[in-house]
From TrEMBL:
This is Elongation factor like GTPase 1. One of its GO terms (cellular component) is cytosol. One of its GO terms (biological process) is cytosolic ribosome assembly. The keyword Magnesium does not apply. It comes from Chelonoidis abingdonii. Residues 456-466 have a biased composition (Polar residues). The gene is EFL1.
Length: 600
């Protein structure tokens, strides 16, 4: 079931849900359950009474609501015909569901019905713009209009960034223009200001090349140029950061209590693609792992999900082969950015065995000296993968390896802080006892109650002293450089950025798959427009029984604006392109050269 809009008699916009009846008969005025795509009947049936219906007074259940079917319509082109009931197998329109359905839902008279999966669209939203009203007082109308647009268009994405900007994410230039027109004319009905299209990029690293563009082995001059470029990159790294010959970065926190050694390596393309395809599964793993670490009550994982996680792990082991990837899958500490992205953090230092596969073996919290600060390392990794050093774009296909984490000085300082805090607590307790003994004898009841309170306090002293010592130890570690956990986050982030900068860095551009239908007379013009916009033809074939050619090519998203209009103008309307987001592609590094010609 999806949503679309229709104009009623009073020029008011209302939503009509487009639905199909799979079983039974739908009647007007019927009470029914509205089940969202994330509704879990196995969890909800434990909270609901047996044999319940939508007309009963039921407790609140996540992703489930009850409503009454107000109007049923037969869709007759641009017109609607009222219906009293609709049998199974038919398509109909339902009014009055705009408050219960966001994009898609499943309607059922039984709460045991499993919901249908949400609609899957081949066109992935990739082009985004920031919108704001021309008059700031009209911001509520814009917010309401964007909510309506989000309901009406199943492909658009509406979000608010960390900066507070309202952003529309669309599938392409034509889709973007249609969404903006609907927002101005139908939903918000205000004048809006739109930013230039924001083209996403990704940052990655590659292996040093062994051959040049004409498949010739790189000679001494090019090797010298590569070495010179590497030295220039290393000159950007400040003093106090150690750089090994093979790219290992060693940094210490500002207070010198901890030392980190981090290395960056490019992931194989198969692994990067596998991580992108299983982002939802990785997010589910993270939820169960966090509940294990925080000792929260965790629901039993479905056996199908466990099988999927095990299969995902086996695929990673199959694609991560070789000496440098030995035991890498069992050492995966986290994924990033946002703990579900196409980047990996490995832990290869001794004394720490926490991995992302806790949900498979259901291990408890590990007791080690790194346990109190391991989240700081993961947070630094997440920040580093969220914005790279080249142009602050997210990273993709990068593996960070923590080969050393030395916390000996921090442990010594923490133990010294605990001793000082214990002595301080003992001194305070002695002073309190002296005060109790010095109370006057004319207040026996009050003194006994005070004594009882002090005795109760002395019984709770181990836990309170432990908490206070840890808090005071953290306070003493938080010297002029700030809290120690914050120093670890900043050090890990900078170490990851420096580890990237000592490797060959590249930008990854978003690419469209372009399918063009054209006649033989305009093929040359089509090729000219594609080459002008850095497109690359993959395939050309003739459609049987016609004089039309089907051209399949790839085109950068950044070069796609105005592409459809230009190709129609150049071919007089005889060629029509279709653009669908396909993949991310590494852009080659531009190396300038000088061509010298000698005339004899």
């Amino acid at each position: 079931m999806t949503l679309k809009t229709v104009k009623q008699e009073a020029d008011k916009e209302s939503f009509i849900a487009f639905a199909r009846v799979f079983s039974g008969v739908v009647r007007r005025g019927q009470k029914i359950f509205v089940l969202g795509p994330k509704y879990d009947p196995a969890e909800s049936l434990n909270k609901l009474p047996s044999g319940c219906s939508a007309a009963d007074d039921l407790p609140s259940i996540p992703h489930m609501a009850c409503c009454t079917l107000e109007n049923l319509y037969l869709l007759m082109g641009r017109g609607l015909e009222d219906l009293e009931e609709v049998p199974s197998g038919n398509v109909l329109g339902i009014g009055g569901l705009q408050e219960f359905v966001l994009k898609s839902a499943t309607l059922s008279t039984s709460p045991a019905c499993p919901p249908f999966t949400p609609l899957n669209f081949e066109a992935t939203p990739i082009v985004r713009v920031a919108v704001e009203p021309k008059h700031p007082s009209e911001m509520p109308q814009l917010v309401r209009g964007m909510k309506l647009l989000n309901q009406a268009d199943p492909c658009v994405q509406v979000l608010i960034q960390e900066t507070g900007e309202h952003v529309l994410v669309t599938a392409g230039e034509v889709h973007l223009q249609r969404c903006l027109d609907d927002l101005k004319e139908r939903f918000a009905k205000i004048q809006i200001s739109v930013s230039e299209p924001i083209i996403p990029f990704r940052e990655t690293i590659t292996r040093p090349p062994k051959v040049d563009m004409v498949n010739e082995e790189i000679g001494k001059q090019q090797k010298v140029a590569v070495i010179h470029q590497a030295k220039e990159d290393q000159n950007k790294i400040p003093e106090g950061v150690q750089v090994d010959s093979d790219g290992l970065i060693t940094m210490s926190t500002p207070n010198k209590y901890a030392t980190l050694s981090v290395r960056a390596m490019p992931l194989p393309e198969e692994v990067t693609q596998l991580l992108e395809e299983n982002s939802d599964l990785i997010r589910t793993m993270e939820q169960f792992n966090s509940s294990l670490n925080e000792d929260k009550k965790m629901h039993e994982i479905n056996q199908k999900i466990l099988d999927r996680i095990q299969e995902f792990k086996q695929k990673l082991e199959k694609n991560l082969q070789g000496r440098k990837w030995r035991n890498a899958v069992d050492q995966i500490w986290s994924f990033g950015p946002r703990k579900c992205g196409p980047n990996i953090l490995l832990s290869k230092f001794e004394g720490y065995k926490k991995t992302v596969w806790q949900c498979l073996d259901k291990t408890t919290k590990e007791v080690s000296k790194y346990r109190d600060f391991d989240n700081s390392i993961v947070s630094g990794f997440q920040l580093a993968t969220l914005s790279g050093p080249m142009c602050e774009e997210p990273l993709m296909g990068v593996c960070f390896i923590v080969e050393k984490w030395d916390m000996n000085k921090a442990e010594e300082q923490m133990s010294a802080n605990r001793q000082d805090s214990e002595e301080l607590d003992a001194t305070e307790q002695t002073k309190n006892e002296d005060k109790v003994t010095s109370l006057p004898s004319s207040y026996p009841i009050e003194s006994s109650s005070e004594n009882k309170k002090l005795q109760d306090g002395s019984q709770d002293s181990p836990n309170s002293s432990e908490k206070s010592s840890k808090r005071k130890g953290e306070t003493l570690l938080a010297d002029c450089y700030g809290p120690f956990s914050g120093q670890l986050i900043a050090t890990m982030k900078e170490a990851c950025r420096y580890a990237l900068q000592v490797k060959p860095q590249r930008l990854m551009a978003a690419m469209y798959t372009c399918e063009i239908m054209a006649t033989a007379e305009v093929l040359g013009r089509v090729y000219a427009v594609l080459s002008k916009r850095e497109g690359r033809v993959l395939q050309e074939e003739m459609k049987e029984g016609t004089d039309m050619f089907i051209i399949k090519a790839v085109l950068p998203v950044a070069e796609s604006f105005g592409f459809a209009d230009e190709i129609r103008k150049r071919t007089s309307g005889l060629a029509s392109p279709q653009l669908v987001f396909s993949h991310w592609e590494v852009k080659d590094l531009f190396i300038p050269f000088v061509l010298v010609i000698y005339f004899l």
